[in-house]
Amino acid sequence: MAKKGSLTINSENIFPIIKKWLYSDHDIFYRELVSNGCDAITKLKKLELMGEWQKPEDMEYKIEVITDSKEKTITFTDNGLGMTMDEVDEYINQIAFSGAQDFLEKYKDKANEDQIIGHFGLGFYSAFMVADRVTIDTLSYKDGAAPVHWESDGGTEYEMEEGDKKEFGTVIKLYLNEDSLEFCNEYRAREVLEKYCSFMPVAIYLSSAGAEPQYETIEKDELTDKDTVIETIVEEAKTEEKENDKGEKEVVEVSPAKEKYKILKRPVPLNDIHPLWNKHPNECTEEDYKNFYRKVFHDYREPLFWIHLNMDYPFNLKGILYFPKLNLNYDSLEGTIKLYNNQVFIADNIKEVIPEFLMLLKGVIDCPDLPLNVSRSALQNDGFVKKISDYITKKVADKLTGMFKTDRENYEKYWDDINPFIKFGCLKDEKFAEKMNDFLIFKNLEGKYLTLADCLEENKEKHENTVFYITDEKEQSQYINMFRQEKLDAVYLTQNIDSPFISYLEQKNENVKFLSISSDLSDTFKEEVSEEDKEAMKADVDALTQLFRKALKNENLDVKVEKLKNQNLSSMITVSEENRRMQEMMKMYSTPGMDMSMFGAGGETLVLNYNNKLVQHVLHHTEDENTLKICQQLYDLAALSHGTLTPERMTVFIARSNELMGLLTGEEKEA
Ligand code: ADP
Ligand code: MG
């Protein structure tokens, strides 16, 4: 007699909610049903360990998933502990009361918190997202238990009666609805299973009903009693005719006769039941780590280095974090941190658990203690989660500082790749910043890597408490050359993140100033000018200023006249540090296509070298017909060595250059 009944506890409410809830992640039912099988097997293994149950010899604990696209079904079979009728009643029919009720109460009106349903004891019911009808056939491992058949059409009714299952374990069969047929395609099934189940602790085999059988050939001594022999292949002995010492022909055997077997291809589990993160770091080789990285992240570049997290107390957390090889600006970096709960994949990049800056890394974290049965917003305020996040941050900082102290060579080697990450971390996470503070290094003009302290110490005499920096090696090559000639030092800070990072450093180190290499001309480049000389130059300075303002048709042009030691330098442009930073900021907030000149090329100063012949020439020939052109040319040249010209200015510059060269040849005048 079949027992009929209604599923208790708000089941009228639950189905619509489950369906809506999981709308964006329909594939999650695979995870739930497979992990239920895993749980059932894990429980049985425990009973075996405790001596309460004896495993049949040669039985392999496993989960089989069979897709059938003709029948439109998916079957999940496990050889776990199974259920008695009472247990089905309790665990399935009553929808694990508390779980369901909690679930309803807390999340009635929230959407998109889709990763956590499995943790409410509702995982089984996710089957109804994709199936119109679900059957369970189960037999408990307990002596004398009767098999149970259960089925439901996904409304609120079920039927339960004695079944005919002969072996302990559970078979769950889903009859897919028309919208979900993709899931009985074997390739799709494999994709989903690989996403969620790649590291589950029980072997999972996927196959599709009605698929062509596949074969393989093995040697005689490889045969096991589990193999199904299709055909015995007898290979005859191979012989060759050879000449012996006496010069006679002889037939010799080169390989003996042997038997081989054609067998049904042995199934291979799709998962790895012993993920690398569960092993002790001492047992893992460099190759293991690299292979694991390749397999999980499909990144064929080698990671730079990694951190194996392995913690039992005060909470349980294991994982591996990789520093990937990237040499991009930080804002285009994108890592992946995969979060697992007892080897069951939960989601990528859960920002409530993993500090934001660590998302630039790639890695796996398995935290069985994670309270995932609360919402994400609750996670954020959870003290425990904060501890996890702090622990990970500390481990990363320890790894980096340890490397600095004991393996400085590699630390420097990796610096160009990892510095955006470290800087981002310093900006985002105070604790991390504190730990890293003394281990930030700067590459200088000689290509040496110095800490800030070393950098300040080395330049104490020439520019105390000032660090000159290069933002663009090409655009600033002129200034770099000048620095080199005068044996001044500067450091490379060329990434996008460096601009906020410099401000951060200045805040941290109050009396230290960072100046762009093109922000001002240091006194080192100038001749000393006495007060009297200055007085004497004043009229010339005014004349030059007027002349250039006129030539460039810009009444507000800032002009400075200096006596530079290097007489060959005629003109330069400097941009004050404040203005440079302002422009930098504007650039960050501007939208594509925005006219940057809107913000003005403000703060630009044209520096003329009083010691240069051309400058002296225009000064003494203000009325010559070519003087204005020379002034314009000097200005453009200065601008060029400070960066690039706008297309319009470049066109004018080229035309004028041609014209001026014409003057050299005298052709122009004759024409
Ligand atoms: P949870 O796994 O969180 O407990 P589920 O809805 O996924 O919630 O499953 C409810 C219960 O049904 C399980 O706790 C277990 O007792 C039982 N169950 C589900 N699937 C199986 C299975 N394959 N074998 C044995 N018991 C199962
Ligand atoms: Mg479950």
Overview of the molecule:
With 671 residues, this protein is α+β, with helices and mostly antiparallel strands. The chain is 36% helix and 22% strand. It has 19 helices and 26 strands. The strands form 7 sheets. It has an 8-stranded mixed beta sheet, with helices on one face. The protein has a 5-stranded mixed beta sheet with strand order 14-15-18-16-17, with helices on both faces. The structure holds adenosine-5'-diphosphate and magnesium ion. Adenosine-5'-diphosphate is lined by residues 32, 36-37, 39-40, 78, 80, 82-83, 91-92, 96, 121-124, 170. Residues 32, 36-37, 39-40, 78, 80, 82-83, 91-92, 96, 121-124, 170 line the site of adenosine-5'-diphosphate.
- Globally, the shape reads elongated
Number of helices: 19
Bound small molecules, by name, code or SMILES, are: adenosine-5'-diphosphate, magnesium ion
Mean pLDDT: 85
Q: What is the gyration radius calculated from CA atoms?
A: 38 Å
List the strand order in the largest sheet.
1-6-5-4-7-3-2-8
Cα end-to-end separation:
116 Å
The profile of the biggest β sheet is: 8 strands, mixed
Structure class: alpha+beta
Number of strands: 26
Helix content: 25-40%
Beta-strand residue percentage: 15-25%
- Poorly predicted runs are 110-119
